[in-house]
Amino acid sequence: MNYQWYPGHMTKAKRMMQENLMLIDLMIELVDARIPLSSRNPDIDELGRNKSRLILLNKSDLADASVNREWMEYFKGQGIHAVEVNSRSGAGVKSIQAVVREACRDKIERDRRRGILNRPIRAMVAGIPNVGKSTFINTFAGKACTKTGNKPGVTKGKQWIRLHKSLELLDTPGILWPKFEDQQAGMRLAWIGSMNDEILQIEELALELIGYLRIAYEGVLSNRFGIKENGENFEILTQICIRRRCFLKGEEPDLRKASSILLEEFRSGKLGRISLERP
User: Fold this and answer.
1) pLDDT, tens digit, for every residue of 194-213?
2) Nearest Cα to 152, choosing from 199, 205, 195, 189?
């Protein structure tokens, strides 16, 4: 399967972000803690090249805790400010304000030398679809400022949110990039739900995920579904059909329904804390 999803609104969103770069001091990029590299959009990296940078490893509660620590060390070694957060519960969010000031220390010092006091830091919040930008902003602000949803493409346009006198955020739509040079990265993005499932071959995606889990997290599938993990990936998916009573007419296994169940339970954390890549 060729993994690609770049609808027209993403081109428009990228253009809007380019037009607002002159207004911001800081680029806050949210990545999915399960795939911190694959969920870093190279276009966003290029847009923020001359800005102060902060990376938030969001959905950290869904990723392997030990691997999260490895990624934090990795970004620290790259000289990049990073914070591990769970936007839904608020874990890690309180520490962000201090890291924002540290990331913008040079800007704050320049303002002080010019006699400019208390000018708010203006930050653009960017990331791929369904990475949790709007949920993060609402949690950070302590109130519902933006529309959220557990699917890609909820945020359609830009929105400025003034958190307090020292920080303003610009919410932006989630964007991917026009062509994935690394199809493995595309597959990981599809696994976590950053593409429209309707354009994907769900059964093939589930079979690939089964193959990964059997190697990296042996026993996860047997514990969750009460099945044996020996045999081919197709046989395991068929076992999930039987255990979850996913049948078409004539007791034929409904592989698509079972595939959707597997992906939903992975994405929601019901399979446990799972990371899909390591530094």
Assistant:
1) 998 888 999 999 999 999 99
2) 195
pTM, full prediction:
0.89
Give how far Cα 277 sits from Cα of 33, 64, 97, 164, 248, Å. 9, 10, 28, 36, 35
Check the CA dihedral 86-278-98-162 and report its sign: negative
What's the rounded Cα separation, in Å, for the pair 175 and 152? 9
Tell me whether strands 26-32 and 52-58 are parallel, antiparallel or unpaired: parallel
Return the minimum-mean-pLDDT range out of 4-8, 17-21, 159-163, 269-273.
4-8
